[in-house]
Write a structure and sequence with these properties.
By secondary structure, the chain is mainly alpha-helical. The protein is built from seven helices and no strands.
Amino acid sequence: MKKPSAYDLTQIALSTALLAVASIVVLPIGVIPITLQVFFFLFIPALLGPVKGLMTIILYIIMGLIGLPVFAGGSGGIGSILSPSFGYIIGALIVAWIVGRGLLNQRSKLQTLGIMSMGLGALYVIGMTYQYMIMTYFLQTPISFMSIMSVNFSVFLPIDMLKMILAVGLYGRLVKLPFAKRIDKL
């Protein structure tokens, strides 16, 4: 792997800032809020590639854990690890790799949709598992995994699928522009 250039680091920093801004506006529904994070979890690695996409998510997580208010609703700090929704942030690391790696080469919109669907699926598996573990074993509020799946699939998945479709559409349009050809997908 080549050493990231100043141009690469700028892309990572700006993408992290976009992700942080996308987390501020929250539609609170239970313990898992609705934000635009999922859109950027899918879009950023599609545009930047797996390494820069992963570096963006890592920087975002570090910023949040050291106390900057970049997580959903402007929260942050090490205590965020104990939030039932933190598993989705951890899952974003896997999403960045799946989507970034899958879209290294030009793909059709249908292939892009399939790759982003795999990323979204991974996000849900990790996020729901983490939510179950935190709620059951740490917060002492036992809940069945089926209940978590039911809520996630009926409330959040339709919204996240819409975000995914928007990410596919925007990516499909931007990747054709001259600036996108200058982005070195690490």
